[in-house]
Amino acid sequence: MSYSKLFGSGFTERNKDHFAAIVRVAMDDGIISDEEKAFLDRVARSLHINEEEYAQILIDYNTHPINPPVEYSVRLERLYDLARMVNLDHINGDSEISLLRKMGLGLGFSSRNVKYIVDKALVLVEEKVDLDTFIVEMKKMNQ
Q: Is the sign of the CA dihedral 77, 122, 41, 68 positive or negative?
């Protein structure tokens, strides 16, 4: 049984939408650097995005919706990916941070807290924490 048949088209579409959101962050400055390209390649593999889908998403990334995950841990994983992409640019400028906050809202984080969540995410990514540490530290914010 193939991967797509195992998880169904809904799962595949969510992965494509998530990947498109990451591409949207990478394209905020108008180019994809070599570091960003390497990161996108890794993310595409982990999300099981094939080469044809990858190429199409690069063309039409703005047409994909941001589908907020139901589970908080999955939202944090997606935020981690997006924050890492912003950090790879080495430009945590206003436009990228603003875009990341919009993505945070799209992922389902509260408009009241998204600024603090994104700021904390960027600090953790700057410190080069792994995903597990990121999730633990982000969950501590709620305590």
A: positive
Q: Model's pTM, two decimal places?
A: 0.71
Q: Is the pLDDT of residue 2 over 80?
A: no
Give the number of C-alpha atoms closer than 13 A to the C-alpha of residue 60, restricted to the C-beta side: 8
The 3-state DSSP class for residue 72 equals helix
3-state SS, one letter per residue, for 99-127: HHHHHHHHCCCCCCCHHHHHHHHHHHHHC
Q: Counting beta carbons within 10 angstroms of the beta carbon of residue 103, is it exposed (0 to 12), middle (13 to 18) or buried (19 or more)?
A: buried
pLDDT in tens, 27-39: 877 888 887 888 8
Pairwise CA distance, residues 109 & 112, whole Å? 9
